[in-house]
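Protocol step 4 of 6.
Sequence for PRA1 family protein (Physcomitrium patens) entered exactly as in the expression construct, tag removed. Do not edit the line below.
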Amino acid sequence: MAPASQPPMIPVTQQDVGATPRSGAFWVLYGKAQDAFNLAFAQKRPWAELVDRTQLAKPESFSDALTRARKNWIHFRINYSLVLVGIVALSLVFNPVSLFFLAALLAAWTYLYLVRSEPLVAFGRTFSEREVLLGMSLFTVALVFMTNVGSTLISALAIGAAICFLHGAFRVPDDLFLDEQETTGGFLSFLSSGTGAPQGTSHV
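Step 5 output, structure tokens:
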């Protein structure tokens, strides 16, 4: 009796082994960033409330202006952040050289950490991932602070911060209870883990 024939072996090839962990990490980070931005936009206040002229009044003192600015920052922190981003974007549009450098820098980071799947080889030498990260970090710092990119970004952030502070200082804060999450979360608190609703606190 002839022995039973075994099924043919299917060759297994390893393709894009190096790219799989990198792409997987990218999608994990993308999902977390998307959740964070969705949570941030859910906390955004209506723009009509932000530009309500009936709520504007001159502060009585500089201390009063600081108090108002702090309270309004807690209440409108997402709106103020969007204002800052918008001013930075406009400054880059009106400075095409800085925009070009930033686009080139973003393209370099994207290629090295999202597209590249093999070790980086240059000048007959293979660079480790730590060396690539260190080199790109130094190159980024040099490009930002030794060109017009740094001055453009700093000027835009300064203008945006001044606008937000003036608005917060002249807007009379609403006498609303600020829950614990708002008063202790601070800047970019929407990036903290957990997307559930904040726990209630006792009111006297």
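Step 6, annotate. The helical segments are 19-42, 47-50, 62-93, 96-115, 129-145, 148-170, 180-185.
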